[in-house]
Amino acid sequence: MVLLSISINLLHAQPIKIHKDNHFLSTLDNQPFFWLADTGWELFHRLDREEVQRYIKKRKAQGFNIIQAVVLYELQAFEAPNAYNDFPLVNGEIEKINLTDGNSPENMEAYDYWDHVKYIMEVAAEHDMIIGLLPCWGEYVTARKREPTIKTTQQGYDYGNFIGDWLKDYNDNIVWVLGGDRLPDERPKGPEIWRAMAEGITDAVNGKDTYDNVADYNKTFMTFHCYAPSSRWFAEDAWIDMHTWGSYHERRDNERAFYVSWAEWDLKNYKPFVNSEPAYENLPINYDWANVSNGKFDDFDVRQIAYWSVFSGCAGHTYGAHEVWMMFKTKNLFPPLTDNLTTEWEGALEYKGGYEMKHLKDLILSYDFYSRKPDLEVLAENLNDPTGRLIACSGKDYVMVYAPTGKDILLDKARIDFDISNTRWFDPRNGKKQEANYETKGDILNFEAPGEVERGNDWVLIVEGE
Asked: Is 370 domain-assigned?
Protein backbone atom coordinates (compact mmCIF):
# COMPACT_ATOMS: atom_id res chain seq x y z
CA MET A 1 0.00 0.00 0.00
CA VAL A 2 2.81 2.40 0.89
CA LEU A 3 4.74 1.36 -2.21
CA LEU A 4 1.79 2.27 -4.44
CA SER A 5 1.60 5.68 -2.83
CA ILE A 6 5.28 6.22 -3.42
CA SER A 7 5.17 5.22 -7.10
CA ILE A 8 2.30 7.61 -7.77
CA ASN A 9 3.86 10.59 -6.03
CA LEU A 10 7.20 10.19 -7.79
CA LEU A 11 5.47 11.25 -11.00
CA HIS A 12 4.97 14.81 -9.80
CA ALA A 13 6.34 17.39 -12.22
CA GLN A 14 7.44 19.69 -9.41
CA PRO A 15 10.65 21.24 -8.10
CA ILE A 16 10.11 18.91 -5.16
CA LYS A 17 8.73 15.43 -4.76
CA ILE A 18 8.39 12.77 -2.13
CA HIS A 19 11.53 10.69 -1.72
CA LYS A 20 11.24 6.95 -2.06
CA ASP A 21 11.22 6.40 1.74
CA ASN A 22 8.23 8.82 1.90
CA HIS A 23 9.46 10.64 5.03
CA PHE A 24 11.49 13.29 3.23
CA LEU A 25 11.55 15.43 0.11
CA SER A 26 13.78 15.50 -2.97
CA THR A 27 14.33 17.77 -5.90
CA LEU A 28 13.25 16.43 -9.28
CA ASP A 29 16.82 15.33 -9.98
CA ASN A 30 16.82 13.35 -6.71
CA GLN A 31 18.89 15.72 -4.59
CA PRO A 32 17.93 16.13 -0.92
CA PHE A 33 15.48 18.98 -0.34
CA PHE A 34 15.15 20.52 3.12
CA TRP A 35 11.93 22.55 3.39
CA LEU A 36 12.88 25.94 4.83
CA ALA A 37 9.90 28.26 4.56
CA ASP A 38 9.30 31.82 5.62
CA THR A 39 5.84 32.91 6.71
CA GLY A 40 4.82 35.74 4.40
CA TRP A 41 1.05 35.38 4.66
CA GLU A 42 0.29 38.93 3.48
CA LEU A 43 2.72 38.92 0.55
CA PHE A 44 0.03 39.06 -2.14
CA HIS A 45 -2.00 41.65 -0.26
CA ARG A 46 0.33 44.26 1.20
CA LEU A 47 3.53 44.56 -0.85
CA ASP A 48 3.98 46.48 -4.07
CA ARG A 49 6.18 45.31 -6.93
CA GLU A 50 9.41 46.85 -5.66
CA GLU A 51 8.82 45.57 -2.14
CA VAL A 52 8.13 42.07 -3.47
CA GLN A 53 11.54 42.10 -5.14
CA ARG A 54 13.32 43.18 -1.95
CA TYR A 55 11.51 40.67 0.24
CA ILE A 56 12.09 37.62 -1.95
CA LYS A 57 15.73 38.51 -2.65
CA LYS A 58 16.40 38.92 1.07
CA ARG A 59 14.83 35.65 2.12
CA LYS A 60 16.59 33.83 -0.72
CA ALA A 61 19.93 35.22 0.47
CA GLN A 62 19.13 34.04 4.00
CA GLY A 63 18.73 30.45 2.82
CA PHE A 64 14.95 30.11 2.55
CA ASN A 65 13.53 28.13 -0.38
CA ILE A 66 9.76 28.45 0.21
CA ILE A 67 7.44 31.36 1.00
CA GLN A 68 4.07 30.57 2.59
CA ALA A 69 1.53 33.17 1.44
CA VAL A 70 -2.25 33.41 1.12
CA VAL A 71 -4.07 34.80 -1.93
CA LEU A 72 -7.43 35.60 -0.29
CA TYR A 73 -5.93 37.11 2.80
CA GLU A 74 -6.64 36.28 6.43
CA LEU A 75 -7.71 39.58 8.00
CA GLN A 76 -9.52 42.65 6.68
CA ALA A 77 -10.58 40.41 3.84
CA PHE A 78 -13.26 42.65 2.37
CA GLU A 79 -12.24 45.92 3.99
CA ALA A 80 -8.68 46.55 2.84
CA PRO A 81 -7.42 46.49 -0.77
CA ASN A 82 -3.96 45.47 -1.85
CA ALA A 83 -1.02 47.81 -2.39
CA TYR A 84 -2.61 49.04 -5.64
CA ASN A 85 -6.05 49.60 -4.14
CA ASP A 86 -7.51 46.46 -5.71
CA PHE A 87 -9.72 43.72 -4.25
CA PRO A 88 -9.69 40.06 -5.37
CA LEU A 89 -13.49 39.66 -5.32
CA VAL A 90 -16.41 41.89 -6.21
CA ASN A 91 -18.36 42.65 -3.03
CA GLY A 92 -16.66 39.72 -1.34
CA GLU A 93 -18.56 37.18 -3.45
CA ILE A 94 -16.59 34.08 -4.38
CA GLU A 95 -18.39 33.72 -7.70
CA LYS A 96 -17.34 37.23 -8.76
CA ILE A 97 -13.60 37.28 -9.41
CA ASN A 98 -12.47 40.89 -9.80
CA LEU A 99 -10.70 40.75 -13.18
CA THR A 100 -10.03 43.59 -15.61
CA ASP A 101 -8.88 43.71 -19.23
CA GLY A 102 -5.15 44.12 -19.67
CA ASN A 103 -2.30 43.64 -17.18
CA SER A 104 0.12 46.54 -17.63
CA PRO A 105 1.46 47.89 -14.31
CA GLU A 106 1.64 51.27 -16.02
CA ASN A 107 -2.16 51.28 -16.19
CA MET A 108 -3.77 50.91 -12.78
CA GLU A 109 -7.17 50.36 -14.39
CA ALA A 110 -5.76 47.31 -16.17
CA TYR A 111 -3.35 45.97 -13.52
CA ASP A 112 -5.69 44.18 -11.13
CA TYR A 113 -5.27 42.08 -7.98
CA TRP A 114 -4.81 38.88 -9.96
CA ASP A 115 -2.23 40.41 -12.27
CA HIS A 116 -0.23 41.29 -9.17
CA VAL A 117 -0.51 37.69 -7.97
CA LYS A 118 1.02 36.53 -11.25
CA TYR A 119 3.78 39.11 -10.96
CA ILE A 120 4.72 37.78 -7.53
CA MET A 121 4.81 34.25 -8.88
CA GLU A 122 7.16 35.41 -11.65
CA VAL A 123 9.52 37.05 -9.18
CA ALA A 124 9.55 33.92 -7.03
CA ALA A 125 10.33 31.73 -10.02
CA GLU A 126 13.14 34.06 -11.12
CA HIS A 127 14.76 33.58 -7.72
CA ASP A 128 14.13 29.83 -7.54
CA MET A 129 11.74 30.26 -4.63
CA ILE A 130 8.74 27.97 -4.27
CA ILE A 131 5.48 29.55 -3.12
CA GLY A 132 3.53 27.59 -0.53
CA LEU A 133 0.33 29.08 -1.88
CA LEU A 134 -2.90 29.16 0.12
CA PRO A 135 -5.80 29.84 -2.28
CA CYS A 136 -7.73 31.31 0.66
CA TRP A 137 -7.52 31.42 4.42
CA GLY A 138 -9.48 28.84 6.40
CA GLU A 139 -11.95 31.51 7.47
CA TYR A 140 -13.44 31.53 3.97
CA VAL A 141 -14.58 27.91 4.40
CA THR A 142 -14.71 27.40 8.17
CA ALA A 143 -15.83 30.80 9.35
CA ARG A 144 -15.65 31.87 12.98
CA LYS A 145 -16.25 35.59 12.51
CA ARG A 146 -18.69 35.80 9.58
CA GLU A 147 -20.76 33.72 7.23
CA PRO A 148 -18.50 31.46 5.17
CA THR A 149 -17.61 32.85 1.77
CA ILE A 150 -17.34 29.39 0.21
CA LYS A 151 -20.51 27.62 1.28
CA THR A 152 -20.76 24.59 -1.01
CA THR A 153 -18.51 21.98 -2.54
CA GLN A 154 -19.35 23.34 -6.00
CA GLN A 155 -18.15 26.80 -4.95
CA GLY A 156 -15.01 25.23 -3.53
CA TYR A 157 -14.40 23.38 -6.79
CA ASP A 158 -15.11 26.43 -8.95
CA TYR A 159 -12.78 28.70 -7.00
CA GLY A 160 -10.08 26.03 -7.00
CA ASN A 161 -10.56 25.59 -10.74
CA PHE A 162 -10.25 29.33 -11.30
CA ILE A 163 -7.05 29.80 -9.31
CA GLY A 164 -5.56 26.57 -10.67
CA ASP A 165 -6.20 27.81 -14.20
CA TRP A 166 -4.99 31.36 -13.43
CA LEU A 167 -1.69 30.06 -12.07
CA LYS A 168 -1.25 26.88 -14.10
CA ASP A 169 1.82 28.30 -15.83
CA TYR A 170 3.45 28.57 -12.38
CA ASN A 171 2.22 25.22 -11.07
CA ASP A 172 5.70 23.74 -11.14
CA ASN A 173 6.76 26.39 -8.63
CA ILE A 174 3.80 25.99 -6.25
CA VAL A 175 3.09 23.85 -3.23
CA TRP A 176 -0.68 24.18 -2.96
CA VAL A 177 -1.53 24.67 0.72
CA LEU A 178 -5.22 24.35 1.48
CA GLY A 179 -6.69 25.46 4.80
CA GLY A 180 -5.28 28.17 7.03
CA ASP A 181 -5.60 27.89 10.84
CA ARG A 182 -9.15 26.52 10.89
CA LEU A 183 -9.74 22.83 11.51
CA PRO A 184 -11.53 21.48 8.44
CA ASP A 185 -14.38 19.90 10.40
CA GLU A 186 -15.32 22.99 12.41
CA ARG A 187 -18.37 23.19 10.16
CA PRO A 188 -20.42 20.50 8.40
CA LYS A 189 -18.98 19.44 5.05
CA GLY A 190 -15.79 21.42 5.66
CA PRO A 191 -13.47 18.56 4.64
CA GLU A 192 -15.61 17.93 1.56
CA ILE A 193 -15.26 21.57 0.47
CA TRP A 194 -11.47 21.42 0.79
CA ARG A 195 -11.42 18.17 -1.17
CA ALA A 196 -13.52 19.83 -3.86
CA MET A 197 -11.10 22.76 -4.00
CA ALA A 198 -8.16 20.37 -4.38
CA GLU A 199 -9.98 18.65 -7.24
CA GLY A 200 -10.74 21.99 -8.88
CA ILE A 201 -7.10 23.07 -8.75
CA THR A 202 -5.69 19.87 -10.17
CA ASP A 203 -8.43 19.63 -12.81
CA ALA A 204 -7.49 23.11 -14.04
CA VAL A 205 -3.82 22.13 -14.27
CA ASN A 206 -4.93 19.11 -16.30
CA GLY A 207 -7.25 21.16 -18.52
CA LYS A 208 -10.49 19.92 -16.97
CA ASP A 209 -13.38 21.90 -15.42
CA THR A 210 -16.00 19.34 -14.35
CA TYR A 211 -16.60 18.53 -10.68
CA ASP A 212 -17.10 14.76 -10.65
CA ASN A 213 -14.94 13.48 -7.73
CA VAL A 214 -12.44 12.09 -10.22
CA ALA A 215 -9.03 13.72 -10.65
CA ASP A 216 -5.44 13.04 -11.62
CA TYR A 217 -3.23 14.55 -8.91
CA ASN A 218 0.10 13.66 -10.49
CA LYS A 219 0.81 17.24 -11.60
CA THR A 220 0.08 19.06 -8.34
CA PHE A 221 1.82 18.98 -4.98
CA MET A 222 -0.53 19.68 -2.07
CA THR A 223 -0.81 19.86 1.68
CA PHE A 224 -3.14 21.35 4.31
CA HIS A 225 -2.44 23.91 7.06
CA CYS A 226 -4.01 24.08 10.50
CA TYR A 227 -3.25 23.58 14.19
CA ALA A 228 -3.60 19.80 14.20
CA PRO A 229 -1.81 17.56 11.69
CA SER A 230 -3.65 17.21 8.41
CA SER A 231 -3.27 13.44 8.67
CA ARG A 232 -6.17 13.51 11.15
CA TRP A 233 -8.59 14.12 8.26
CA PHE A 234 -6.75 13.45 5.02
CA ALA A 235 -4.37 10.54 5.66
CA GLU A 236 -5.94 8.41 2.95
CA ASP A 237 -6.75 11.19 0.46
CA ALA A 238 -5.16 10.98 -2.97
CA TRP A 239 -4.72 14.75 -3.32
CA ILE A 240 -2.49 15.34 -0.30
CA ASP A 241 1.25 14.74 -0.68
CA MET A 242 2.58 15.80 2.69
CA HIS A 243 1.16 16.77 6.07
CA THR A 244 1.65 19.88 8.16
CA TRP A 245 0.53 21.13 11.54
CA GLY A 246 1.49 24.04 13.76
CA SER A 247 2.85 24.23 17.28
CA TYR A 248 1.60 27.84 17.24
CA HIS A 249 2.00 30.67 19.72
CA GLU A 250 0.41 29.86 23.06
CA ARG A 251 3.54 29.42 25.13
CA ARG A 252 7.23 28.79 25.30
CA ASP A 253 8.72 25.28 25.52
CA ASN A 254 5.88 23.77 23.50
CA GLU A 255 6.34 20.02 23.56
CA ARG A 256 3.94 19.62 20.62
CA ALA A 257 6.98 20.38 18.46
CA PHE A 258 8.26 16.86 19.15
CA TYR A 259 5.20 14.92 20.31
CA VAL A 260 3.29 15.59 17.08
CA SER A 261 6.38 14.82 15.01
CA TRP A 262 6.87 11.45 16.67
CA ALA A 263 3.23 10.54 16.07
CA GLU A 264 3.45 11.55 12.40
CA TRP A 265 6.65 9.56 11.95
CA ASP A 266 4.94 6.40 13.19
CA LEU A 267 1.82 6.64 11.01
CA LYS A 268 1.13 3.52 8.98
CA ASN A 269 0.39 5.58 5.87
CA TYR A 270 3.14 8.09 6.53
CA LYS A 271 4.08 11.08 4.42
CA PRO A 272 6.62 13.88 4.80
CA PHE A 273 5.52 16.38 7.44
CA VAL A 274 6.48 19.86 8.61
CA ASN A 275 5.71 22.15 11.55
CA SER A 276 4.35 24.90 9.29
CA GLU A 277 3.37 27.41 11.97
CA PRO A 278 5.65 27.50 15.00
CA ALA A 279 6.01 30.46 17.35
CA TYR A 280 6.95 33.61 15.42
CA GLU A 281 9.94 35.67 16.46
CA ASN A 282 8.91 38.87 18.30
CA LEU A 283 5.27 37.81 18.54
CA PRO A 284 3.69 38.41 21.99
CA ILE A 285 3.38 35.07 23.79
CA ASN A 286 -0.18 33.74 23.86
CA TYR A 287 -1.36 36.48 21.48
CA ASP A 288 -1.17 39.12 24.20
CA TRP A 289 -1.16 42.01 21.72
CA ALA A 290 -2.37 44.69 24.11
CA ASN A 291 -0.14 44.28 27.15
CA VAL A 292 2.68 41.93 26.12
CA SER A 293 2.70 40.84 29.75
CA ASN A 294 4.03 37.37 28.86
CA GLY A 295 6.93 38.74 26.85
CA LYS A 296 7.71 37.95 23.22
CA PHE A 297 9.21 34.93 21.50
CA ASP A 298 12.89 35.48 20.78
CA ASP A 299 15.50 33.85 18.57
CA PHE A 300 16.13 31.07 21.08
CA ASP A 301 12.44 30.19 21.13
CA VAL A 302 12.33 29.79 17.37
CA ARG A 303 15.58 27.78 17.36
CA GLN A 304 14.34 25.47 20.09
CA ILE A 305 11.11 24.67 18.25
CA ALA A 306 12.91 24.23 14.93
CA TYR A 307 15.50 21.76 16.24
CA TRP A 308 12.94 19.91 18.35
CA SER A 309 10.71 19.52 15.28
CA VAL A 310 13.37 18.53 12.75
CA PHE A 311 15.24 16.16 15.06
CA SER A 312 11.89 14.47 15.70
CA GLY A 313 11.41 13.66 12.04
CA CYS A 314 10.20 16.74 10.14
CA ALA A 315 11.20 17.14 6.49
CA GLY A 316 12.16 20.73 7.20
CA HIS A 317 10.75 23.71 9.05
CA THR A 318 8.83 26.95 8.68
CA TYR A 319 10.06 30.14 10.33
CA GLY A 320 8.02 33.25 11.02
CA ALA A 321 8.63 36.81 12.20
CA HIS A 322 5.68 38.73 13.61
CA GLU A 323 5.96 41.89 11.54
CA VAL A 324 6.90 39.97 8.40
CA TRP A 325 3.90 37.65 8.24
CA MET A 326 1.62 40.74 8.19
CA MET A 327 4.06 42.87 6.14
CA PHE A 328 3.62 45.69 8.63
CA LYS A 329 4.29 49.24 7.44
CA THR A 330 3.66 52.37 9.50
CA LYS A 331 2.43 54.22 6.42
CA ASN A 332 -0.09 52.07 4.67
CA LEU A 333 -3.50 51.96 3.08
CA PHE A 334 -4.83 50.11 6.11
CA PRO A 335 -4.28 49.87 9.88
CA PRO A 336 -1.89 47.37 11.55
CA LEU A 337 -3.29 43.93 12.28
CA THR A 338 -2.21 43.89 15.94
CA ASP A 339 -1.15 46.32 18.66
CA ASN A 340 2.37 47.09 19.94
CA LEU A 341 4.19 46.99 16.61
CA THR A 342 7.41 48.98 16.50
CA THR A 343 9.43 47.38 13.69
CA GLU A 344 8.41 47.50 10.04
CA TRP A 345 8.55 44.32 7.99
CA GLU A 346 11.87 45.15 6.34
CA GLY A 347 13.48 45.74 9.71
CA ALA A 348 12.05 42.45 10.96
CA LEU A 349 13.84 40.65 8.13
CA GLU A 350 16.97 41.31 10.18
CA TYR A 351 15.83 39.41 13.26
CA LYS A 352 18.41 36.89 14.43
CA GLY A 353 16.21 33.86 13.91
CA GLY A 354 15.75 34.68 10.23
CA TYR A 355 19.51 34.34 9.76
CA GLU A 356 19.93 31.35 12.06
CA MET A 357 17.48 28.98 10.35
CA LYS A 358 19.90 28.37 7.48
CA HIS A 359 22.35 26.77 9.91
CA LEU A 360 19.80 24.05 10.66
CA LYS A 361 19.24 23.43 6.96
CA ASP A 362 22.99 23.32 6.28
CA LEU A 363 23.55 20.96 9.19
CA ILE A 364 20.93 18.45 8.06
CA LEU A 365 22.09 18.58 4.44
CA SER A 366 25.72 17.98 5.43
CA TYR A 367 25.01 14.45 6.71
CA ASP A 368 23.31 11.45 5.10
CA PHE A 369 19.90 12.99 4.49
CA TYR A 370 17.57 10.09 3.87
CA SER A 371 18.73 7.85 6.71
CA ARG A 372 17.80 10.36 9.42
CA LYS A 373 15.28 9.18 12.00
CA PRO A 374 14.18 10.18 15.52
CA ASP A 375 16.29 8.29 18.05
CA LEU A 376 15.64 8.85 21.72
CA GLU A 377 17.02 5.43 22.63
CA VAL A 378 20.59 6.65 22.13
CA LEU A 379 20.15 8.87 25.20
CA ALA A 380 21.18 7.24 28.45
CA GLU A 381 19.28 9.93 30.37
CA ASN A 382 16.60 12.46 29.43
CA LEU A 383 14.90 13.85 32.50
CA ASN A 384 11.58 15.68 32.25
CA ASP A 385 12.67 19.27 31.61
CA PRO A 386 10.23 21.64 29.88
CA THR A 387 12.92 23.96 28.50
CA GLY A 388 15.96 21.70 28.23
CA ARG A 389 14.40 18.54 26.84
CA LEU A 390 17.02 16.66 24.82
CA ILE A 391 15.94 15.52 21.37
CA ALA A 392 18.08 13.11 19.37
CA CYS A 393 18.18 11.80 15.84
CA SER A 394 20.52 9.45 14.04
CA GLY A 395 21.42 8.31 10.56
CA LYS A 396 24.12 6.55 8.63
CA ASP A 397 27.29 7.02 10.70
CA TYR A 398 26.04 9.89 12.85
CA VAL A 399 24.06 10.81 15.94
CA MET A 400 22.86 14.33 16.73
CA VAL A 401 21.42 15.59 20.02
CA TYR A 402 19.91 19.02 20.55
CA ALA A 403 20.41 20.46 24.05
CA PRO A 404 18.37 23.68 24.50
CA THR A 405 20.02 24.66 27.78
CA GLY A 406 23.55 23.34 27.34
CA LYS A 407 23.20 20.68 29.98
CA ASP A 408 25.23 17.45 30.03
CA ILE A 409 24.36 14.82 27.42
CA LEU A 410 24.71 11.17 28.37
CA LEU A 411 24.76 8.71 25.47
CA ASP A 412 24.44 4.93 25.59
CA LYS A 413 27.36 3.70 23.54
CA ALA A 414 25.66 0.33 23.10
CA ARG A 415 22.97 2.12 21.08
CA ILE A 416 25.47 3.60 18.62
CA ASP A 417 25.90 1.23 15.68
CA PHE A 418 29.19 2.60 14.34
CA ASP A 419 32.74 3.19 15.53
CA ILE A 420 33.07 6.77 16.75
CA SER A 421 35.64 8.79 14.84
CA ASN A 422 34.78 12.35 15.82
CA THR A 423 32.64 14.26 18.33
CA ARG A 424 31.81 17.93 17.89
CA TRP A 425 29.60 20.72 19.21
CA PHE A 426 27.57 22.65 16.67
CA ASP A 427 26.50 26.19 17.54
CA PRO A 428 22.97 26.85 16.13
CA ARG A 429 23.53 30.61 16.42
CA ASN A 430 26.35 30.75 13.88
CA GLY A 431 26.76 27.27 12.39
CA LYS A 432 30.29 26.83 13.69
CA LYS A 433 31.68 23.60 15.12
CA GLN A 434 34.19 22.86 17.84
CA GLU A 435 35.62 19.75 19.43
CA ALA A 436 33.46 17.92 21.98
CA ASN A 437 35.32 16.02 24.66
CA TYR A 438 33.66 13.38 26.81
CA GLU A 439 34.18 11.04 29.72
CA THR A 440 33.47 7.32 29.47
CA LYS A 441 31.95 5.27 32.28
CA GLY A 442 31.24 1.81 30.99
CA ASP A 443 28.82 2.24 28.09
CA ILE A 444 27.91 5.81 29.12
CA LEU A 445 29.52 8.70 27.26
CA ASN A 446 29.20 11.99 29.17
CA PHE A 447 29.43 15.23 27.17
CA GLU A 448 29.58 18.63 28.86
CA ALA A 449 28.40 21.47 26.60
CA PRO A 450 30.24 24.82 26.48
CA GLY A 451 28.99 27.57 28.77
CA GLU A 452 26.51 27.61 31.62
CA VAL A 453 23.41 25.47 31.91
CA GLU A 454 20.76 28.08 31.14
CA ARG A 455 17.94 28.93 28.80
CA GLY A 456 19.26 29.93 25.39
CA ASN A 457 22.67 28.27 25.66
CA ASP A 458 21.63 25.70 23.09
CA TRP A 459 24.00 23.32 21.33
CA VAL A 460 23.92 20.33 19.02
CA LEU A 461 26.17 17.39 19.83
CA ILE A 462 27.35 15.55 16.74
CA VAL A 463 28.85 12.09 17.03
CA GLU A 464 30.36 10.88 13.75
CA GLY A 465 31.44 7.45 12.58
CA GLU A 466 34.03 6.12 10.20
From this structure: no
